[in-house]
Structures are given as structure tokens and as C-alpha cells.
Prior knowledge:
The chain has helices spanning 6-9, 38-49, 68-78, 97-106, and strands at 14-20, 26-33, 58-61, 81-84. It has 107 residues and is α+β, with helices and mostly antiparallel strands. A hairpin with a 5-residue loop joins strand 1 and strand 2.
Amino acid sequence: MKRVTTAEKKITGIKIHAGVDVLGPPHGVHVTTANITDRDGALEMLEKYASNMTGGVKLLCDGGYTGENFADAVADFVGASVEIAKRNELHKFLVMPKRWIVERSFA
């Protein structure tokens, strides 16, 4: 899942939560207002598109989706575990293969 910030899409006040396959095709896209937390928006998307996302083993998320409650809710909705793809801690630009999956979907 990816939270699109205002700087990336030049749209104020919204977040886009997207569930994509490892090859990039979307299985669910949910738009929320910016006052909805990342985790709540993602859970709304999973609830709405759970039938499209069954059979997955892991849900790869960025740091905004951490938390045991979120991981438990994901397991309930789609039966998958949550893996957090951390950013490079050296603050250098590096293409991180797992994080790039969602990024290229928005390109």
C-alpha cells in the first residue's frame, strides 16, 4: 500500500491507498481525506476489496502502516501477514526493489 502525499500528486487533502500485485496491477484503490490515518484508510480499502486480495501471503507496506492492531486486522480481512519495507537509513537515494513495486504503479 502506498500513501500518496501532496508533493507527489500535487493534490491537497487526499490520500490514495492502493493494493497492487508484485507485477503492479491494482487489486484495490481507495481514496480518503487527509484526516484519515494511513492504517484506517488501508483497512477501509481491504474491507472493500477483500475478495480481490485473497490468496496473498504477505502485505508489503511502508512505515505508516506499522502496529500490531493493523497486522491483526489485515490477517482477519485477507489472511495475510504484514511486512514493513523500511526506508534506507543512510538517507541516500537508492531504489529499493520491494518499495518500487507500488511506486511504479503510480508512474
